[in-house]
């Protein structure tokens, strides 16, 4: 990158940049990447970009966008930027340690609130925050889940501030998405940028699929050595259906809809050409409400009537367990550092973004006076919805959120506006900075495993802080170095 181009690259507010240091020099772990892209001609870059786009179209690597301005949902290939994000080995080891610690504490919390509720009795978390939580499922009270594992697969969203410090932004514990983009992105980069990949000594993610399958197998009732595992999808019209088909194929498990399963004698069976076969593990990709119309939403046509009866009888495992959403509620998020100290007796490795609980009068009053400086989130929503980004919001939007907070303060939290780090993306043959985050995927079974690198999500619109795919965000391959 030329000095002139670098100068233009920095014509904006100061953020932590993943590739470039403050003096505009290239960070050492990005040397190989910077050198290769610096010497490639625009025509060659365009050829590789076209090859990448063509592969994504052929393989159907898509995401469905829903917009109130459109009569029909728009299915498109997810924007994929081919400049990889690079993370040094030592930096990743700290992330790996912090994510594993966090999911251990969250898993302990979920078990506790559906059993003795010690954390409530000891005054760490108010009881009202549990019982009034949208995702709290009384049906899970007193149930012992297979292996004590509630959150088999989780996605922990991380960001970096202007000093390069990592923070946890959100915990996604119900049915986190993005696995397919991580694995397919790596396949495409290793093929289309084969020369760069081979010269970069990148940690492999191949064994992570085996870890995923092992985690699901470990849940099988009675320790079956060859359990029948299915992935339960809402169907082809779901925005993440591509991912459902991809994972089922890669894991070698059955892709099913609710109508493919039947409840009988407190067990769940798969209908196929050989008749009825007992299902041992269900990796579900639909929300609690739709799992079982006899236990949850009676109008659901997507789930399996009687599933919860079979679950309670111990004849089938569900991953992730129903009711895990109580721990990824954005108000509960504020208490995770305390959970780590309480359940594990450890100091948190990864810090939370400073968060205000709006049911507390003093914090609510402060937030209402500083809405133009803060980010406000509706606790039960995800995907970038129900948010106010104060520094970029209009006066009308701020007034609307202020009224909503006064009317129902427990429905919202507020957070310090973080200066999300940036990484270069390729725009018309030259590098341009975009804000990013990192979704670290953790798998829990007999052992815990964090997929090396995870998925870097990119706010493709210049200046935007919203990285969610449902809001038009894109992705990058994330390389953890072996040295």
Automatic annotation (TrEMBL):
Ranges for domain Circularly permuted ATP-grasp type: 84-459
Gene3D superfamilies: 3.30.1490.270, 3.40.50.11290
Pfam assignment, any one: CP_ATPgrasp_2
Entry-linked InterPro entries: ATP-dep_Glu-Cys_Ligase-2, CP_ATPgrasp_2, UCP005522
Classification via PANTHER family: BLR5612 PROTEIN, SLL1039 PROTEIN
UniProt-recorded name of the protein: Circularly permuted type 2 ATP-grasp protein
